[in-house]
Each structure stands twice: as C-alpha cells, then as structure tokens.
Amino acid sequence: MANDMMVKELEQVVVRFSGDSGDGMQLAGNIFSTVSATVGNDISTFPDYPADIRAPQGSLTGVSGFQVHIGAEKVYTPGDKCDVLVAMNAAALKTQYKFAKSTACIIIEKSDLEKAAFKTDNPIEEMGIKQDVIAAPISKMVKDCLADTGMDNKSMLKCRNMFAVGLVCWLFNRDLKIAEDFIREKFAKKPEIAGANIKVIQ
User: Fold this and answer.
1) What is the dihedral of CA 50, 143, 150, 162, to 10 degrees?
2) What angle do CA 160, 124, 99 make, to 5 degrees?
3) Are 63 and 199 in contact (CB under 8 A)?
4) What's the CA gap between 183 and 13, in Å, rounded?
C-alpha cells in the first residue's frame, strides 16, 4: 500500500478546519499554522467564528472555522478556497463545502445529520460531492486511543481536534514534535490533558 502512495511537492496550500463552536478549531488551526511557520513556510490565517453564540451542538449556525494559507514563498491572503477541508460534523460539511476547491480533499466525520437538516444518511451523495472524501470515525478512534487513560467520555471527545491536526500534519509531512511542544506549553498546568492530546495527535 505504502509503495502506491503518490507524493507531490506543493508551492502553496490552503487548509480549512471546521466544526462546532467549542470543538477547538481555532486551536487546531493555530497549531498547524505554528508548525508550518516553524519549518519556514509563510502563512496567512483567517479565524471564522459562528453566527450564533452558544448555538445548539451540531447546528448549522454554530459552525466555527479556521483557514490557513501556507506557502513556500510569500502569501498575502488566507486564500479564497481550500485544498483540504476538515469537517468535524455534518453541519460543518454543509456550511463550509462552498469554500472547497473542486480538487479538494475532504476529511469528515458524519454525525448530527438531522441537526444539519440532511434528508438522507448519505450527505456526500445528497450534496453531490465529487471530490476525494476521507470519512474517518474520528470520535471512535479518539476514544479507542484514550481508553486506558481513565478519562470520561466528554473529556476524551475534547481531544478530537488534535486527531484532525495529526492527520493534516501527516498529509503535509509536518514534524509532530513542534505540535507536541506547542501542546505541552499550552496545557503546562494540566499535564494529563497535554498527555492525552499528544497521544491523540500521534
């Protein structure tokens, strides 16, 4: 399988993280931006806050996002459309898909379909999405990863954003050590949270 992998060198790329308000999309975007800047890329970022304050979880008006444009040379804007769209739930996919290029890679977790007003259980087909889609069971994978930590379900799910960061770092061959250092500093007073996030990002 690894022998069939195609590696491309890109001059610039736009990544958009999106999910519920409270899913940590700004933190995820900041970590990926920091990792990219540290290795010498120029960056331009755009945090996108939800239309409603404390909107119901999984609802269309509660979607939060963070877009980052990284480049080998100088970049001047956060970019118009993204090359990679990370959608942490169905509402994020529905509201943010318009920002994805026709050639974009879309990473999704299919959840909260009813709250996002989907009529079927296949949002990809319903929206007519033709791009490459990675439908990852993010919540389950995070829970499995942290099963032996003794964390409660709610605390484990708060680490889902780190799974997204780890996946995007892998896609663009980023050094996870920089992200891990960021996490240790961010959660210096909560080492158990730092440890859980590092475990998930790996």
Assistant:
1) -50
2) 70
3) no
4) 24
